[in-house]
Amino acid sequence: MKIKVKLVRGFAGKTEKQKQALKSLGLKKINDERILDxxxxxxxxxxxxxxxxxxxxxx
Length: 59
Hints:
Protein name: Large ribosomal subunit protein uL30
Helix content: 25-40%
Keywords: Ribonucleoprotein, Ribosomal protein
CATH architecture: 2-Layer Sandwich
Largest sheet: 3 strands, antiparallel
Domain Large ribosomal subunit protein uL30-like ferredoxin-like fold: 3-53
Number of domains: 1
Number of helices: 2
CATH class: Alpha Beta
Order of helices and strands: EHEHE
Organism: Sulfurihydrogenibium azorense
Subunit structure: Part of the 50S ribosomal subunit.
């Protein structure tokens, strides 16, 4: 299964852990979108930054 992740809020004032999670997801700027496989590593990073991103499942 694939998921589409979109960054909807910026990096300013975020912790280093949150910045690293966004970097590992491949999100660099507001409105960046990535299509990723739904793996435990991706889901763990999404849990850290769930308030900064919008997630949609793709079938």
